[in-house]
Design brief:
This protein has 350 residues and is α/β, with parallel strands linked by helices. The protein has two domains: 1-32, no CATH class; 35-99 and 118-318, 3-Layer(aba) Sandwich (Rossmann fold). The chain contains eleven helices and twelve strands. The chain has helices at residues 44-53, 78-94, 128-139, 153-162, 179-189, 196-209, 242-259, 278-290, 304-311, 320-335, 339-349, and strands at residues 4-8, 23-26, 58-65, 70-77, 121-124, 144-146, 167-170, 222-227, 237-241, 268-271, 293-296, 315-316. It is globular, with a radius of gyration of 23 Å. Residues 127-327 form the AMP-dependent synthetase/ligase domain. It holds the Pfam family AMP-binding. InterPro entries: AMP-binding_CS (IPR020845), AMP-dep_synth/lig_dom (IPR000873), ANL_N_sf (IPR042099).
Length: 350
């Protein structure tokens, strides 16, 4: 099946204009690109709307882990996450971090490009708190900068300085590995380490003592800056607007509508990809838009199938390498079981 369609014929060179080849689009966009509906300005509206529609629905879940055993998934509801995001956003603002709409971006022409922005922060959590912190930024129109925990201290230090990060959220067990970069960051910014509970407390006090009206948001504001791994040099920051994030989310909705079925509040998504991965961010934002549940894996590939079996999700997203490993594992196991098992498996698969 062809998945692209020609929408423009090639154009010869004429009147000083160079020639151009034919233009193609996905067959699912053959009639034109999607436009955002009026009134949709920020991904924050996905959460705020779903919290109103499905306040008691499970939103973010993780498995309870003790020294002796692993329990079932424990969930935060949409209302709980919404309330926590409002409190955390208030705490961030109380630390002097301002909305994006009040700031400017300045670039230099040097090879080491500099982003000047005081309203950025850096997130590094593979937990439900990550999405809560992300939504806290969305609520206050603050740009967030997610990082992979495999980047290493040098890349972390570079991105912190390059993006002029003012607040860092770091998972506790990641601190020792990145202590050198964080110590430099803390020394430069004269910041103190605070735990999540303290910021929640600070946010509650801020809401009591100040007007909790959220700042206005625009689809042209920068929602996030995604950094590459820097395989050809230092990491490069890609600025992604509110409009781009929302367009991707609504495109997922359209694609699922045409090829399978759209998600509902009854669906659940297994969060396996890194949260610093734009693919995973879009899928989780889509789930929030639809009121679906997001369950996180434990972060250990040895227990991946166990977590999947416990959650029983209706949606799983992976990259080609993940599916190739699953395929190879199945084929090898079936092939080693003899002719009868291989024949039965192929019959069942067909």
């Amino acid at each position: 099946m062809d998945f692209i369609v020609k929408v423009e014929e090639p154009r010869p060179a004429a009147n000083g204009r160079p020639s151009a080849g034919p233009a193609y689009r996905s067959i699912y966009a053959k009639d034109g690109l999607m436009e955002l509906p009026e009134g949709l300005e920020s991904p924050w509206q996905f959460l705020s709307d779903s919290a109103k529609k499905y306040p008691s629905n499970p939103m973010l879940g993780r498995r309870q882990v003790t020294d002796t055993k692993v329990g079932p998934y424990v969930w935060l509801t949409y209302q709980e996450v919404y309330d926590a995001a409002i409190r955390m956003g208030s705490a961030i603002r109380s630390r002097g971090v301002n909305p994006v709409s009040h700031m400017q971006i300045k670039y230099t022409c040097s090879s080491a490009q500099t982003l000047t922005r005081r309203s950025l922060r850096y997130i590094w959590i593979k937990l439900p708190q990550w999405l809560t912190a992300m939504e806290a930024c969305n609520s206050q129109a603050i740009t967030y900068v997610p990082l992979y925990d495999t980047l290493g201290a040098n890349a972390v230090e570079f991105i912190i300085n390059h993006a002029e990060v003012s607040i860092a959220f770091v998972q506790e067990n990641k601190l020792p590995a990145q202590l050198s970069a964080l110590q430099m960051f803390l020394a430069l910014k004269r910041r103190k380490l605070k735990d999540w509970g303290y910021l929640v407390f600070l946010g509650r006090n801020s809401l009591r003592n100040a007007d909790c009206e959220l700042p206005p948001k625009r689809r042209t504001d920068i929602c996030t800056i995604m950094y590459t791994s820097g395989t050809t040099g230092e990491p490069k920051g890609v600025r992604i607007s509110n409009g781009a994030i929302m367009s991707e989310v609504l495109s997922v909705e359209q694609l699922l509508f045409l090829t399978d079925r759209v998600c509902t509040e009854e669906d659940s998504y297994f969060s396996f990809l890194p949260l610093a991965h734009i693919y995973d961010q879009i899928m989780e934002s889509y789930c929030i838009y639809k009121g679906s549940s997001v369950g996180f894996w434990r972060g250990d590939v040895r227990f991946l199938l166990e977590d999947l079996q416990e959650l029983m999700p209706t949606m799983f997203c992976g990259v080609p390498r993940v599916y190739d490993r699953i395929y190879s594992g199945i084929v090898n196991k079936v092939s080693s079981g003899g002719v009868l098992k291989k024949t039965l498996f192929q019959y069942a698969y067909n």
